[in-house]
Amino acid sequence: MKRIYFSILTTVTLALAVDAQEVKFRKISKEALEETSYSRDAEAHGAYLYRNIKIHYDYSSIQGFRQIKEVHERIKIYDKDGLGHATQKIVYFNSSKGQDKISGLKGYTYNLVDGKIEDSKLKSDGIFDEEINKYWSQRKFTFPDVKAGSIIEFKYSIASPYTTYIDELPMQFFIPVKEQHIKMVVPEYYGFKPIVKGYLPLRPSISSGRGSIEWVNKQRAEGFGGGTTKFKNQKVEFQTTVTKYDMTDVPALKPEPYVNNMRNYLSSVKYEIQYTKYPNSPIKSYTKDWEKVAKEIYSSESFGGQLKKTAYYEDDLNALLSNVSKPDERMAKVFSFVKSKVKWNGNNGYSSRQGVRKAYKEGVGNVGDINLMMVSMLSHANLKAYPVLVSTRDHGIPLFPTIEGFNYVIAAVKMGGQIFLLDATSPNSVPNVLPNRALNWMGRLITKDGNSTPVNLMPQKRSLDAAMFSIAIDKDGSIEGKCRQQLSDHNALVFRDKYAKKTEEEFIEDIEKDNDIEISDFQLKSAGSIYKPVLESFSFSAEDQFDVIDGSLYIAPMFHMAYDENPFKLDHREYPVDFGYPQTDKRIINIEIPEGYDVQSMPESVSFSMPEKLGSFKYNIMKNGNMISLSSVLDINTSIVSPDRYSILKEFFRQIVEKQSEKVVLKKI
Amino acid sequence: MAKRILLPLLVFFFSFSPTSSAQNSIRSYHTLSPELTKGANAVVRLDQTEIELISYDKARYKVHRVVTVLKKEGDHVIGAVLHYDPSVKIKNVEVLVYDRNGLQVKRIKEKEFKDRSAVSNGSLYDDNRLKYLDYTPTAYPYTIELLYERITNNTAFGFAWRPIEGYRVSTEKSIFSLKNIANIPLATKESNFDGFDVKINKLDDSMTYSLSNIPSYKKESLSPPLYQIHPRLWIKPNQFNLVGVEGKAGSWKELGQWIYDELLAGRDQLPESTIRTIDRLLEGVDDPIEKAKKIYEYVQENTRYISVQLGIGGWQPIDAAEVDKMKYGDCKGLANYTMALLRSQSIEANYAVVWAGRQKRDMTRNFSAMQGNHVILNIPQKEGEDIWLECTSQTMPFGFLGDFTDDRDVLLVTSNGGEIVHTTVYKDQDNQKETHSEINIDEHGNVDAQVQITTCGIQYDQRSSLERLSRKDHDRHYKDHWGYVNGLVLGEVASHNDKNAISYTEKIELRAPSYAEKVGDEFILAINAFDRSNSVPARYRNRKMPFQVQRGTVDTTSSTIKIPEGYRLKKLPKPLTIDTKYGKYRSELRLMDTNRLTYNRKLVVNSGRFPKEEYSDYRDFKRNVAKADNQKIILTKAIDQE
Predict the structure, then answer these.
(1) Does residue A502 lie in a domain region?
(2) Shared-domain flag, residues A468 and A580
(3) Do B73 and A501 touch (CB under 8 A)?
(4) Distance from CA of A116 to the nearest CA of B (A)
(5) What confidence score (pLDDT) does residue A572 get?
(6) pLDDT at B86
(7) A71 near A53, Cβ under 8 Å?
(8) What is the pLDDT of residue B5?
(9) Does A133 sit within 8 Å of B116, measured CB to CB?
(10) In CATH, what number is assigned to the domain containing residue A663?
């Protein structure tokens, strides 16, 4: 006798503990509507009064597990600049392969009218679905009847078949949050690990709970004279991990200058999948330690698989290297060959997007295509070459062994006890001078057998910007002079990238504009040979460069070369100052004293430095015959200055600006 | 061995194949003349647009475009971004890529184009989409050939040809032709053709325009926008279709009538309850202007700007009743709503279509085609005193337009048809800024100051937004504004926004450490501490474009300076005056008593458009002003006077 089992019904009851203090939808207090500003931040244009996010799983035998996110948010709008918050959006996955489903979107605007609470419902004419591209859509909704003082409130839930992926959970915004609760109930079948971003202290409470899946099995026994049907309740119990973030009075993030992307500093938590362990299935591990990460990446076709391929370039490369024997020359040849052969399409990624062979043929590729191809070629050239996983600056810092922590890859070559880092996506980059985007703390060098070591990506060597000026002054206030400038390492890279984008004429005009000078005889040496420093020279003239008062000349002897404004003006700073790389700024200036004049007074020579060798400044000035000789050297020894050193940095630069603006007085003899 | 023979054969084949080489000549970088590549990011080798006007509601474009891109900045010039919406279809797209020698390296089909929504910034939703080619060139220069067809049912905007496409783009050949198959009456406007060798060929049912070999232009500061200088052809049918609505545009009167009848009429109905609310709001108010003001402020308090543009909704306002319910709308919806509220109180108001933007732009007076990008409201008054309302702003004073829509021709839409009228002009002498400061210098050279800045006219527009900044943003603003003051410490900041008088007053307390610089026994300092005109426009060796100063200003400064005990002014400088056609300047320092000085300064900048030859004179004017504003004085130790 044959039995057919099939289930007809799926009900899911993942028991969720109901939070007693939970704020009820549509229960708005008059006091909240009467509020005119946020008590702890009078400048806030709006505030989240309440956020409640719940993530849990349900199960159906047709769809299997789905991840459900329930969202309930309440936002107070204090003034007209906060009206923007009355438009919200939900970005969701929507491709032919799988879809997130939004359901139960409800929203209300509340206003106080003549002392009474009035609400207006969000209706379908305020809701719009927009297909962003093939994969992503967004649902935008805008609330009716919103003005300064209104409260808006909405809730929805979103169900996703992608159970191993949890959206980043934002904890902080550009407006304050009065109260928020984020709760995740994850069945034991999933292991996640949190990756925390931002400066907010986050203290989740973690406990365990129980959940169960119940469904009904219909069992039909075939027999003589028809079958009999039996219904049987099935139940599976499981453990859950309950993670809760209960927070009150989360401050708004306030933008600051000299930060690339403020969003990087918003506090959030990203849960990354570690493993899945479904009933009656073997455990599937995603990542655990660096060894696993390395092995896993190597075993994937789009990474390790691409490193193995050699046939497509072998002939070309052999021809290229046939007469080159020195390892460093071989490295340089391969490096420039890859750069000339494949251009970067602007896309990041540590793995190969389209496959190295295609990238090679078409001459275009993403970071993975280009740099994995280079690692393979370098190995083929008998060099010890390895991929190094990198997280770019706008992607944050990877603290844990995770794959999602990385979004970029470069090549490393070990040679003569040294390590050389190479990135062929940047045409002007040379070994150990990586483009700015890749300069982000540590990378991870990985080998086939699962070994991995951290690699310092931050440049240790100071990039030089040294300029010599000889200047003749005219007592009408104008100056003429010559300048020779040398730029090395990252300064040279930045210069070359900028120069490549412009015509020489535009480039000169930019220097003229930035410095308020007029340039002639511009010459650029070794701009093309990227292994050498940039050498530029030009003659210049400028008017109205100093003051003539009562026949005496009051000259700030660094002219346009001085820092005339402190780049750090604000009193406090909460985020690091990012110089990109250590650097030396050197200015040597020789000024000819015009006939009939002599020095009446000169600034004093000084040198001072910041503690912990963060930076130093030396200023030397002396009279030498009919010349004034000045040298000003600024060393910044670190790439990043932490916010607790900000006041030191600000004062350091204030003193530099003050020193560089001090005057030499020349009087008539 | 066989391989060796092939090579010369190939060369032979190519060199004796005139059709192939002639055809490819514009696809090769080498055939470009140096005058077209100089300073250019890209060269339009060929832009051939053939339009068939099939009927009043259907036009077919055939575009054939060949562009040689010289550098990355020129990538966008290939033009492979094709906008469409429900009434526009794109067909038969094909792209061919050539290397610098004109050899084809790639062929790209339409399905490789990416497709995405083109909801514009600031818009909640619209139905625009675009297909675009995401192409990374492997080397520069390269050439792209793009072919496509575009079929549109919207003919309301007419057909335009701009053979000079933008800065740093030169044009080898641009051909535009239009075939009027249905013999629809057309109007044609040729602008700025003088000085350009535009070839024109007109037949009964078709016309062809072409222009060749125009080197690229670079952007020069203060130059008027390209469309005001460069050749532009605009053709419009006098009968048109706009998203399924038929219209007539024989004159502005006719087009205005159409807009009124088809897009506006009947959309001003309001619920009784709202009218009663307004009635109550206006109780006891008799003056119609005062009533209008109260209504405008009611709209500002109760609505917000949200843009949704779908189909005809791109041109037709949503019902006033709908705005009343939702409390939001776009410029059309909010203007129409305000108009409805005003009319409910028997105040006449009219809808006005405008080209908005800081760059002033007129609706073309004698060419009645659908145009404009914004809607404002007009309340007619006696000649020249009309009140204009910007209905999308929650903060603008009643009757103030600011630099977004000031001083330009707009289309007024009334029940009697359309009419071109001019918006408020903010005259140079009304755009004032007054800076008054009390400056106290101590014996270390530190300055403590109280500064009061009052702005009105167009300068009000530029500063009144400061009102809504936080303390931290104020700190940043003033430190940038007076960036030349090293180590500035901001004290109390207060402000008063007088929306009736339309003036904005800031009161700032601050400290400037070592503002007076110690040199030996003396102090040296710039006497104009808080109102310097430092910006000198860029110098051009060979200026090509005329220049314009769109809005004139009058800045006056007065300050009282207390110098430290024991010091005196070394020498009283002579007053400085500058007098040019571009503006005037005068500053004077006076000694009130031994340790008190007063400084007065006035800078007048005139608006106007000037030929390129005068640019260096204008620059000299600005330079001399900057120099005068940097005038220094010396304080020296007083000789004992006992």
Answers:
(1) yes
(2) yes
(3) yes
(4) 16
(5) 79
(6) 86
(7) yes
(8) 36
(9) yes
(10) 2.60.120.1130
CATH number for the domain that contains residue A46: 2.60.40.3140
Q: What is the pTM of this model?
A: 0.81
Q: Do residues A134 and A236 share a domain?
A: yes
Number of domains in chain A: 3
DSSP B362-384: ---TT---S--SEEEEEE--STT
* Least confident segment among A170-174, A235-239, B229-233: A235-239
The pLDDT of residue B412 is 97
pLDDT for residue A253 is more than 80: yes
Between positions 135 and 154 of B, the ones with CB within 8 A of A are 136-139
Quote the pLDDT of residue B16: 37
Domain enclosing residue A357, as ranges: 290-456
Between A and B, how many CB-CB pairs are < 8 A? 136
Assigned architecture for domain B428-637: Sandwich (2.60)
When pLDDT is cut at 50, 70 and 90, the band that residue A502 belongs to is: confident
Residues A452 and A467 in one domain: no
- Mean pLDDT over the full length of chain A: 87
Beta-carbon separation of B116 and A148 below 8 A: no
Do residues A562 and A443 make contact, with C-beta atoms less than 8 angstroms apart? no
CATH number of the domain residue A304 falls in:
3.10.620.30
Residues of chain B with CATH 3.10.620.30: 252-422
Provide CATH 2.60.120.1130 ranges for chain B. Answer: 428-637
Candidates A102, A106, A139, A141; CA nearest to A121 is A106
User: d(Cα A184, Cα A16) in Å, to the nearest integer?
Assistant: 10
Instruction: Check whether A354 has a pLDDT greater than 90.
Output: no
- Give the Å distances, CA to CA, from A382 to A311, A375, A414: 16, 11, 11
pLDDT surpassing 50 at residue A127: yes
Identity at A404, one-letter amino acid code: E
* Domain-embedded: residue A137: yes
CATH topology (fold) of B252-422: C8orf32 fold (3.10.620)
Q: Tell me: do A93 and A242 sit in the same domain.
A: yes
Q: Do A131 and A91 share a structural domain?
A: yes
Residues of chain B with pLDDT under 50: 1-23, 642
Judgement on whether residues A449 and A470 belong to the same structural domain of the protein:
no
Please give the Cα distance from A332 to B508 (Å, whole number).
60
State the CATH architecture for B26-242. Sandwich (2.60)
Burial of B295 (0-12, 13-18, 19+ CB in 10 A): buried
pLDDT grade for A120, boundaries at 50, 70 and 90: very high
Comparing CA positions, the residue from A363, A497, A374 lying closest to residue A428 is A497
Where in chain B is CATH 2.60.40.3140? 26-242
Is B125 part of the contact surface with chain A (CB cutoff 8 Å)? yes
Predicted local confidence at residue B126, as pLDDT: 76
Selected residue with higher pLDDT from A299 and B61 = B61
Tell me the pLDDT tens digit for each residue of A373-384. Answer: 999 999 999 999
Q: Side by side, which strands form the sheet with A597-601? A: A547-549, A552-555, A664-668, A597-601
Is A367 in the same domain as A242? no
Nearest CB partner across the interface for A654, out of B486, B519, B520: B486
Report pLDDT for B3. Answer: 34
Q: What does the alpha-carbon distance between residue A552 and residue A473 come to, in Å, rounded to a whole number?
A: 13
List, in sequence order, the alpha helices (H) in B119-158: none
Asked whether residue A277 is domain-assigned, the answer is yes
Using 50, 70 and 90 to split pLDDT, how confident is the model at A3?
A: very low
Does A262 touch chain B if contact means CB atoms closer than 8 Å?
no
Gap between the Cα atoms of B247 and B253, Å rounded: 12
Mean pLDDT within A136-148: 90
**Pairwise pLDDT comparison (B114 vs A111), residue with the higher score:** A111
B-facing residues of A in 520-579 (CB < 8 A) are 543-544, 547, 549-550, 554, 564-566, 569-571
Q: Are A448 and A491 within one domain?
A: no
Domain contains A26:
no
